[in-house]
């Protein structure tokens, strides 16, 4: 087989055969296909799409490129959640302990932020001592002893996706439904979870800008999961404004701890509880209310044990950025818009995110939103506080917020937090 023939076939709008797909993924993983050839194929896929059959085979080949984890020794059913990425999306942090407190095992393999979307591992690494990298045996140990583990995927899990995702990130080929669906689902299926709830984000701060695109992505992923015997459900949720008030790393951990203590912003609590119900349902666990686990301290207890089991000190003060800059409301009225993308880019430029994979992130950098769309504001009141280690970062962050918020007179027409459910 020849890489150029495969590229030409997709370039000319043909479906790839099973043999072509299996060969391409295997050869690319082994280093037998050049990065520029894979980049060209990824662009052809982005432009010409793939049928459901092709996406299914592509996903299966990516799973087969590495190892599969096995949780059959656990005494509890496994259930997991995956978000397609957003701004202020710290839901995994309270969600995993809540679901574990209700009786499931939550093996949450998570990623790092790149660009304007945050990464769960970057957030948790702001907890002094906390370790993202665990061996498979350590992961199973934490899962068995606490009910939840949030860690980095080992290098043996879907290595084809690891290479391809890094390539897509620098070749403008991330925003492709077949490539996103197969990337996410190959990792989740290889991880070996029994049930999966997908949080497919919609809006300016998400990869999918429209409900139609998000629905297509969700349907594709649900079909792949179901075909592989994973009970899969998807929620389409709003990402036109940031989730909660905190956007960054340590600031999002602090907000998650507030939620685990029974407080926190309404939208973060609502989404955590809804996703927890879906995860428990998919795992066949009945008679437990996740809202109780937040009220009675049992989720907080799992959180503390989970953080400690991964080397973190749940009582240690979280890092804070040295410098702050507050933006005040230019007039009185109603905050009609707070754009998720603008706030995400601001947090990224303040140091919370990275421009290249190897860059370090600042634990304390980020944005605190004092008002949320729909809130009444008074001229001069704080609207956003920017946190950075270096004040030189404020100018570019302020640039990204220009036009990112609006004050008007009437309540805004916002996307509902939970737009739809697919199964
Ligand atoms: N998250 C992934 O894991 N892969 C993608 O392609 C996009 C988001």
The overall number of domains is: 3
Mean pLDDT: 96
CATH class of the largest domain: Alpha Beta
* Discrete helix count: 16
How many E strands?
13
Layout of helices and strands:
Layout: H1 3-11, H2 18-30, H3 35-48, H4 52-64, E1 79-83, H5 92-101, E2 106-110, H6 120-124, H7 136-146, E3 148-152, H8 159-169, H9 177-191, E4 195-202, H10 211-227, E5 231-238, E6 246-248, H11 250-260, H12 266-282, H13 290-295, H14 298-309, E7 323-328, E8 333-338, H15 340-352, E9 366-369, E10 376-377, E11 382-388, H16 394-401, E12 405-408, E13 418-422
Parallel strand pairs: 1-4, 2-3, 4-5
Antiparallel strand pairs: 5-13, 6-9, 7-11, 8-10, 8-12, 9-11
Uracil (URA) binds at residues 84-85, 165, 174, 179-180, 183-184.
Commentary on this structure:
The structure is a single chain. With 423 residues, the chain is α/β, with parallel strands linked by helices. The protein has three domains: 3-49, Transferase, Pyrimidine Nucleoside Phosphorylase, Chain C (Transferase, Pyrimidine Nucleoside Phosphorylase, Chain A, domain 3), CATH 1.20.970.10; 79-154 and 161-171 and 187-309, Pyrimidine Nucleoside Phosphorylase, Chain A, domain 2; 323-408, Alpha-Beta Complex (Aldehyde Oxidoreductase, domain 3). The protein has 16 helices and 13 strands. The chain has helices at residues 3-11, 18-30, 35-48, 52-64, 92-101, 120-124, 136-146, 159-169, 177-191, 211-227, 250-260, 266-282, 290-295, 298-309, 340-352, 394-401; strands at residues 79-83, 106-110, 148-152, 195-202, 231-238, 246-248, 323-328, 333-338, 366-369, 376-377, 382-388, 405-408, 418-422. It has a four-stranded mixed sheet with strand order 1-4-5-13, with helices on both faces. A four-stranded antiparallel sheet has the order 6-9-11-7. The longest helix has 17 residues, at 211-227. It is globular. The mean pLDDT is 96. Its EC number is 2.4.2.4. Homodimer.
């Amino acid at each position: 087989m020849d890489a150029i023939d495969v590229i030409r076939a997709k370039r000319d709008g043909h479906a790839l055969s099973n043999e072509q797909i299996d060969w391409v993924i295997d050869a690319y993983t082994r280093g037998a296909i050049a990065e520029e050839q894979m980049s060209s194929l990824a662009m052809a896929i982005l432009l010409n799409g793939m049928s459901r059959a092709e996406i299914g085979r592509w996903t299966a080949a990516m799973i087969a490129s590495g190892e599969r984890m096995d949780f059959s020794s656990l005494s509890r059913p496994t259930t997991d959640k995956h978000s397609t990425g957003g701004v202020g999306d710290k839901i995994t942090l309270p969600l995993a302990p809540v679901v574990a407190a209700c009786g499931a095992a939550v093996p949450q393999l998570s990623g790092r932020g790149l660009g304007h979307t945050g990464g769960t591992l970057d957030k948790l690494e702001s907890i002094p001592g906390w370790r993202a990298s665990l061996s498979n045996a350590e992961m199973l140990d934490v899962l068995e002893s606490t009910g939840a583990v949030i860690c980095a995927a080992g290098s043996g899990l879907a290595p084809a996706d690891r290479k391809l995702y890094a390539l897509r990130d620098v070749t403008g080929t991330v925003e492709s439904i077949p490539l996103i669906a197969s990337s996410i689902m190959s990792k989740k299926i290889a991880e070996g979870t029994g049930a999966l709830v997908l949080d497919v984000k919609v809006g300016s701060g998400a990869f999918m800008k429209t409900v139609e695109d998000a629905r297509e992505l969700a349907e594709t992923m649900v079909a792949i999961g179901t075909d592989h015997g994973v009970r899969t459900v998807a929620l389409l949720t709003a990402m036109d404004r940031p989730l909660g008030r905190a956007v960054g790393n340590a600031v999002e951990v602090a907000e998650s701890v507030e939620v685990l203590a029974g407080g926190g912003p309404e939208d973060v609590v609502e989404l955590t509880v809804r996703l927890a119900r879906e995860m428990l349902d998919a795992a066949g666990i009945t008679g437990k209310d996740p809202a109780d686990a937040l009220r009675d301290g049992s989720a907080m207890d799992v959180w503390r044990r989970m953080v400690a089991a991964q080397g973190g000190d749940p009582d240690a003060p979280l890092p804070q950025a040295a410098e702050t800059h507050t933006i005040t409301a230019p007039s009185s009225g109603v905050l009609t818009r707070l754009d998720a993308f603008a706030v995400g880019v601001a947090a990224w430029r303040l140091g919370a995110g990275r421009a290249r994979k190897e860059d370090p992130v600042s634990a304390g950098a980020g944005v605190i939103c004092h008002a949320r769309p729909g809130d009444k504001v008074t001229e001069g009141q704080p609207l956003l506080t920017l946190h950075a280690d270096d004040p030189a970062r404020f100018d570019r962050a302020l640039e990204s917020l220009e036009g990112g918020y609006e004050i008007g007179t009437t309540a805004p027409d916002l996307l509902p937090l939970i737009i739809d459910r697919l199964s």
